Amino acid sequence: MEIDINRLDLEFQAKIDSGKTIEPKDWMPEKYRKTHIRQISQHAHSEIVGMLPEGNWITRAPSLRRKVTLLAKVQDEGGHGLYLYSACETLGISRDELFEQLHSGKAKYSSIFNYPAVTWADMGAVGWLVDGAAIMNQVMLTRTSFGPYARAMVRICKEESFHQRQGFEIMLSLCNGTAVQKHMAQESLNRWWWPSLMMFGPRDEESTHTEQAIKWKIKLKTNDELRQQFVDQTVPQIELLGLELPDPAIKWNEERGHYDFGPINWDEFWRVVGGNGPCNRERLAARKEAWEKGAWVREAALAYAEKQENLREAV
Amino acid sequence: MNKSLYDYLILLGDSPLILGHRLSELCGHGPNLETDIALSNIALDLFGQVRNWFQYAAEIHGEGKTEDDIAFLRYEHEYRNVILTEQPNKDFAWVIARQFYFDAWHYSLLTQLCESRDERISAIAAKSIKEVTYHRRFSSEWVKRLGDGTEESRARMENAIAHFAMYKGELFEETNVEKEMFASGTGADFKVLKAQFESFTNEVLNEAGLEIPQIDWTQRGGKHGVHSEHLGYILADLQYMQRAYPGMQW
Predict the structure, then answer these.
(1) I want to staple B46 with a disulfide (CB 3.0 to 4.6 A). Which of B20, B86, B122, B150 is the partner?
(2) Over 70: is that where the pLDDT of A1 sits?
(3) Mutant choice from A304, A306, A308 vs B, greatest count of B C-beta within 10 A
(4) Rounded CA gap, B250 and B246, in Å?
(5) Hey, are the CB atoms on A290 and B30 less than 8 Å from each other?
(6) Are B44 and A72 inside 8 Å of each other by CB?
């Protein structure tokens, strides 16, 4: 039996190595299934928790055009949550169970959403930096080995790159505006910069999952490689906006062919991941409240559907 | 400027503006993802319609007026939405009952406006009616689902339908501008509007097994600029950026 499992394992890895996708009905190692449930659900939770900081600005958006694009954007995040939960369900777990894991704190979501969106400029910075950082991970995931996840990512990436451009465009309008607006943009960039760099996760030497993840093509690049790529891409954009660099240590390194940047505050990172960021409690409370207050609605929808089904059968 | 036409466009745009605002408060907080997305969709449709009405109104007004000046820079008494649309999102049954009454009225109004002599109005109505057909289906299906779901959902739905009945009369109170617009072939016939509204809502409520509220009075005032206490708070949010940072481009 053990030999069989070993053989299956080898065939499974060979399939991934040859560039074929793994589909829900294919045999897969239990660890692969569990890792994917963890990662895809974490991603789905990030989408729906991520609706909260931006959702908080829809009613206060400064123009009708901005209001409509922000609302559409936040709604897209809900749509992404929906595809990802569906992709996760193909691995044999229900959406209700996944929500249960989120609400109990067992499942994580991207820590960035535990930071507050306090000014309108944050709608620009979040789209530009946070979605920008997310895309770096997600573009890589369009080539991941698990088919439903890779396909969901193709669609999500298209929408996310639109969101990123939209965020940058909000920043550009602020930077082309009055001194007050430009200050708002700078202040927002300064606040979101470091948390955005933290989005790529711990340094490679402290990242426990990297090796296995690369083997399964969940990761094609390491956390530090992606972080560097993000810095290299973003610094010229900051300059284009005419804003000051949020980190005095940012400097082009001719030898490396990359920008150097200052040390990340990993104590803050672990504190926020551990539940003690500025908004962790509020975010989770908002999700739980929506779920609990909606219980009677979901029960009613289920009861109604059953009644309709019985009626159809009776005819 | 054609003041009557301008005032009429404000009447057409303000109710979807304020209802869209209420719906957008729910984004990210719905009872499940599908409903959350659907309610945001309805809000998006309504804001799209608002932009069409206000862009037209801004053109009629001239003097550099913009859709945003109209949406964000009026005083409370200058808003002309029906009071129904200001009411808060107390629970999902309230959201659905408010939407159900609004959609039934909105659908009949836009159906008539498709035939308006004003070509711009008929074009906006023709585009909007497709969206509102979906809104009306969404809200009436939820009235049925909640009405015939569980004991709790039925009690909540019945309560919400009864509560919001006191706001529906205002939908059929014709202002002078609306009378004038009907007479000139631009606006809607309120007798037809009321008859279609009653027939549609009664049919859905009957199908849902819910009691049809008998009510012989109405809350009124919104169409004349006299609002409930809720509007002030809505405007505090809606106008916040424009008031705090006057004259800036976003």
Answers:
(1) B20
(2) no
(3) A304
(4) 11
(5) yes
(6) yes
The dihedral of CA A299, A302, A305, A306: what is its sign? negative
As a whole number of angstroms, the distance between CA A114 and CA A188 comes to 15
| For residue A276, pLDDT beyond 80 | yes
Distance separating alpha carbons of residues A305 and A311, to the nearest angstrom = 10
Report the distance separating Cα B7 and Cα B53, nearest Å. 11
Q: Does B27 touch chain A (CB under 8 A)?
A: yes
Residue whose entry in the numeric block shows the structure tokens 């908080």: A56
Interface probe with B: pick from A51, A52, A57, A75, most Cβ of B within 10 Å: A75
For A301, the 3-state DSSP assignment is helix
Percent of all residues in chain A with a pLDDT value above 90, rounded to a whole number: 89
CA–CA dist B173, B9 (Å, integer): 17
CA nearest to A161, candidates A188, A134, A123: A134
Domains by residue range for chain B, with CATH: 3-244 (1.20.1260.10)
Among all residues of chain A, which has the CA nearest to that of B30?
A290
Closest Cα of chain B to A284: distance in Å? 12
Q: Which residue's structure tokens are 């909007």?
A: B128
ipTM over 0.95: yes
A157-A162-A168-A173 Cα dihedral, nearest 10 degrees:
-170
CB contact under 8 A, B149 and A300: yes
> pLDDT digits over A200-253, tens only?
999 988 877 777 888 888 888 899 999 999 999 999 999 999 999 999 999 999
Q: Are B126 and B65 in contact (CB under 8 A)?
A: no
Interface with chain A: mutation pick from B32, B99, B140, highest number of A CBs within 10 Å: B32
Least Cα distance to B13 among B87, B109, B99, B154 occurs for B109
Q: What is the CA radius of gyration of chain A?
A: 21
Q: How far apart, in whole angstroms, are the C-alpha atoms of residue B30 and residue B229?
A: 25
User: For residue A2, what pLDDT is reported?
Assistant: 60
Residue B61: its pLDDT value, please?
98
Instruction: Give φ, ψ of A259 to 5 degrees.
Output: -80, 135
CA A209 to the chain's CA centroid:
18
Contact A293 B31 (CB under 8 A): yes
Q: What pTM value is reported for the model?
A: 0.96
Q: CA of A4, closest CA in chain B: separation in Å?
A: 42
Task: Decide: A63 and B66 in contact? Cβ < 8 Å.
Answer: no
The predicted-structure confidence for A151-183, as pLDDT tens digits, reads as follows 999 999 999 999 999 999 999 999 999 999 999
Q: Is the model's pLDDT at B159 over the cut of 90?
A: yes
Which of the four pLDDT bands, split at 50, 70 and 90, describes residue A6?
confident
